[in-house]
């Protein structure tokens, strides 16, 4: 088994009361609301999982995850432990309190129906039943529609468990060895958040076989970030991002 | 694409956009849009919408994934949120444009620089005001990640993201041909806090030529 990436960090406190746990079937799309002060562990039950995610402020759905603001506030092109996931309003939707994976992509987007058909072949429910090939964009639109959202709300997403590096000339390279079975990432929600997930393969995964992986979800009560929280202290920018967020929850 | 230089006098639009101001307009399929960095190192924050169905709009991540590269330059097909090619970059005398850095906003300025920076004019305020004036029910929901023409945001192989001095210079330009009728939304960036525009926002020139 490959050694754990050096950048991996485990800082989560799992001592809080468990709220619920679910397992996503391969290819399943999912949505739910995570309240401020709860945490969610995403676990890749098999190697080479990918979990596309979009996040919205559940109290004001126009406020949503902003890839650019997240990356430039933290001078990073990927997400890992101690990173905050920023909204477009200078606030933090969730922060990453633990990560055994070391790198999560947020610059490569989703697969769509045409890509999935050309890469993996054509399937329909009529023949394959629930084994038909799902794609990232339609999975997101499916879940977004349940909240009155749609095409206007397709945002640059996170691809948890996927690593795509950029060379000196800007070219992308998908890391096929990155996600190991059992890898997990913990998200602590700093505001009431609508979380939308799709478990289709990463759009740059070159594997010819369509085989999304099973992913476990487990939510627990973690409480909000303490003053000495590593995510808050990662950089001065995050200190201000937490301050902006906490202003919404003052009595 | 023709190699014959376009005649400036035949442009159907030739307009200066002052530093820090928005611009909104339509470019029809086949038309050519040129954006000129008049004084050098200006950042031109830009979004595109399908003019007939604005829920289809420019997508940074689809553009990056489709070409397998994070930088935009000649040959880049600007992709929509629904996978279509909206415009193609047909000429680029700058060499590299960003689509990861997004647009500055009053709120992100408080995070990036200081709480006291909230009052400063920002691209997303330009975008919001232009959309409100346009009066077609476009709102903040319609502001995805944009392009920053002439801006230099290098990413290292280790995944670090930097805001570096510009690679552009006075008179450099980028030229795009529309593959569908597009609505163009520009904020000629007013940012005074980072080196993307050498701390000195300057005017740009927009030119549009009819389909050839």
Write the layout of secondary structure elements.
The complex is a heterodimer of chains A (251) and B (212).
Chain A lengths: L8 E2 L7 E7 L4 E6 L3 E7 L6 E7 L9 H8 L9 E3 L5 E8 L13 H8 L4 H4 L7 H9 L13 E3 L3 E3 L5 E3 L9 E6 L3 E6 L16 E7 L8 H4 L2 H11 L5
Antiparallel strand pairs in A: 1-7, 2-13, 3-12, 4-11, 4-13, 5-8, 5-12, 6-7, 7-11, 9-10
Chain B lengths: L12 E5 L4 E6 L4 E6 L6 E7 L9 H8 L9 E3 L5 E8 L13 H7 L10 H12 L12 E3 L22 E7 L3 E7 L15 E6 L3
Antiparallel strand pairs in B: 1-10, 2-9, 3-8, 3-10, 4-7, 4-9, 5-6, 6-8
Characterise this structure.
The complex is a heterodimer of chains A (251) and B (212). By secondary structure, chain A is of the alpha+beta class. Chain B is α+β, with helices and mostly antiparallel strands. Helices cover 13% and strands 27% of the residues of chain B. Chain B contains 3 helices and 10 strands, in the order E-E-E-E-H-E-E-H-H-E-E-E-E. In chain B, the strands form 2 sheets. In chain B, strands 1-10-3-8-6-5 form a 6-stranded antiparallel β-sheet. In chain B, strands 2-9-4-7 form a 4-stranded antiparallel β-sheet, covered by helices on one side. Chain B is globular. The N and C termini of chain B lie close together (9 Å). The mean pLDDT of chain B is 95.
Helix content range of chain A:
10-25%
End-to-end distance of chain B, in Å? 9 Å
Name the average pLDDT of chain A: 94
Order of helices and strands of chain A: EEEEEHEEHHHEEEEEEHH
Strand content of chain A: 25-35%
- Main sheet record of chain B: 6 strands, antiparallel
**Helicity of chain B, as a percent range:** 10-25%
The number of distinct structural domains of chain B comes to 1
Overall geometry of chain B comes to globular
